[in-house]
UniProtKB/TrEMBL annotation:
Listed GO MF terms: aminomuconate-semialdehyde dehydrogenase activity
Name of protein: 2-hydroxymuconate semialdehyde dehydrogenase
Keywords: NAD, Oxidoreductase
Classification via InterPro entries: Ald_DH/histidinol_DH (IPR016161), Ald_DH_C (IPR016163), Ald_DH_CS_CYS (IPR016160), Ald_DH_CS_GLU (IPR029510), Ald_DH_N (IPR016162), Aldehyde_DH_dom (IPR015590), OHmuconic_semiald_DH (IPR017628)
EC number: 1.2.1.32
Family, similarity comment: Belongs to the aldehyde dehydrogenase family.
UniProt-listed NCBIfam families: OH_muco_semi_DH
Tree of life domain: Bacteria
Active site (catalytic residues): E254
Pfam families: Aldedh
Length: 486
């Protein structure tokens, strides 16, 4: 059984307290590893190492050398692609068809893209008139923010963690990662890659553990960190902002969603079905950008629903390494209970269950895993719990609509504002509707098409701030103005 340790100051270390917790494979609920649980001492050590590294070779390293090292990290992930793939799939149960196309390649790309992007970003300068006529020159320079706490979730563990670590390191910061307790493996493997690439000790640190009264809370309330970037549930974001308030830390939050898809009668039906299938069921519905509310214009409602049902019933649930598998399990027993409670609630609230609604029979060892059926409902009012609350499972409610104004109002009637998808072949309508949706990202005739140079983040309760491209630069650096009297 694998022993998973913290990675502090370039070394793998166990917990001072000796406390550990189980690493579970969600496809079987069998224990596959033992994880060391970090507390205050490990967080203190990691913060000390990260602060020292800022003053060491990393802090003094020429830009070109730093960027070259980040390319080596990306190459190191790609060189150990299969190990990362297996680690991610064992932790999450997700099919390798998904992780080999998204999680691992994007995990590597996050280091290259941000290293390349920041080599040539300009800053501003202004000439100022002065009474003596000689003037003054103002110019701004960017400095690393310092030590960044990266608190990440379990749904896309490597991808979402490196989406923060890549730009943070490219900007010259040092980081302490607190991966989700459900998915400790790839962050740990990344420690090995960092050492092999020659990243100096203390630049990248990993402390394992839970949130409250554990590594997550000790890290985010630590006075020695300079910024917190967090991806996870909205209520965890609220806890972190309270914990960090005493030290007035900058935060960047990517939080929950209840994302709509709006399907107009003039859509390309094949594309809309394919995209909606992915956005509802990819990663067993555990994608923050995923669709849980589908609004379909009435003339095509029946046909769309029938085709979505057929496609959902064609999904293959199975082991991560089976080439035929298109959907894995939910992450944990606890999350399965939560999702199933919504399946029950939907029926209690009077939903029509178009497909699914329960648990599948799985063979052999998979029988004990966290499997649920892909599920589609119709017939509920917009006020129903399953239409309002983030479920984070492989399910959606499909609702007919009659006009653009009506659907925009329904789509925006939520506390969240992360993502939306619009399906139409009418270009004017596409622009008009996209502009009116309350979402940080709107896809037209696509879903999860990501350009890492673009702003990413949520409106309303879906987040604070934007990352991606120069927007990550805004969070991971301090901009300083220098005024030179001439
Ligand atoms: P979570 O909030 O339960 O946990 C996320 C991380 O926070 C974990 O590492 C956890 O240990 C840590 N944590 C929990 N409580 C903490 C505390 N009090 N102090 C410090 N750290 C704490 O989220 P999850 O269940 O891992 O992920 C699913 C959620 O993440 C969903 O709500 C989903 O929408 C959201 N998400 C959002 C985005 C986005 O980009 N907006 C991306 C992925 C996931």
């Amino acid at each position: 059984m694998q022993e998973i340790k913290h990675f502090i100051n370039g070394e793998f270390v166990g917990s001072v307290s000796g406390k550990t917790f189980a690493n579970i494979n969600p496809a079987t609920n069998q224990q596959i590893g033992v994880v060391h649980e970090g507390g205050q001492p490990e967080v203190d050590q990691a913060v000390a190492a990260a602060r020292a590294a800022l003053k060491g070779p990393w802090g003094k390293m020429p830009l070109a050398e730093r960027m070259a090292l980040l390319h080596k990290v990306a190459d190191g992930i790609n060189a150990r692609f299969d190990e990362f793939l297996e680690a991610e799939c064992m932790d999450t149960g997700k099919p390798k068809s998904l992780a080999s196309h998204i999680d691992i390649p994007r995990g590597a790309a996050n280091f290259k893209v941000f290293a390349d992007a920041y080599k040539s970003v300009p800053t501003e300068s202004f000439m100022l008139d002065t009474p003596d006529g000689k003037g003054a020159l103002n110019y701004s320079v960017r400095k690393p923010k310092g030590v960044i706490a990266v608190v990440s979730p379990w749904n896309l563990p490597l991808l979402l963690m490196t989406w923060k670590v890549g730009p943070a390191l490219a900007c010259g910061n040092t980081v302490i990662v607190k991966p989700s307790e459900e998915t400790p493996r790839t962050a740990t493997l990344l420690g090995e890659v960092m050492n092999d690439a020659g990243i100096p000790p203390g630049v990248f640190n990993v402390v394992h553990g839970f949130g409250p009264d554990s590594a997550g809370a000790f890290l985010t309330s630590h006075p020695g960190i300079d910024g917190i970037t967090f991806t996870g549930e909205t209520r965890t974001g609220a806890a972190i902002i309270k914990a960090s308030a005493d030290h007035i830390r900058h935060v960047s939050f990517e939080l929950g969603g209840k994302n709509p898809a709006v399907v107009f009668a003039d859509c390309d039906m094949d594309k809309a079905i394919e995209g909606t299938m992915r956005s509802v069921f990819a990663n067993c519905g555990q994608v923050c950008l995923g669709t849980e509310r589908v609004y379909v214009e009435r003339p095509i409602f029946d046909e769309f629903l029938a085709r979505l049902k057929d496609a959902a019933e064609g999904m293959q649930l199975g082991a991560w390494d089976d080439e035929c598998t298109s959907m894995g399990p939910l992450i944990s027993k606890e999350h399965k209970e939560k999702v199933l409670s919504y399946y029950t609630k939907a029926v209690e609230e009077g939903a029509n269950v178009i497909t699914g609604g329960g648990t599948p029979d799985m063979p052999g060892a998979l029988a004990d895993g966290n499997w649920v059926q892909p599920t589609i409902w119709t017939g509920l009012p917009e006020t129903a719990a399953i239409v309002k609350e983030e479920i984070f499972g492989p399910c959606c409610h499909v609702q007919p609509f009659d006009s653009e104004d009506e659907v925009i109002e329904m789509a925006n009637d939520t506390q969240y504002g992360l993502a939306a998808a619009v399906w139409t072949e009418n270009t004017s309508r596409a622009h008009r509707v996209a502009a009116q949706l309350d979402a940080g990202i709107v896809w037209v005739n696509s879903w999860f098409l990501r350009d890492l140079r673009t702003p990413f983040g949520g409106m309303k309760n879906s987040g604070i701030g934007r990352e991606g491209g120069v927007h990550s630069l805004e969070f991971y650096t301090e901009l300083k103005n220098i005024c030179v009297k001439l």
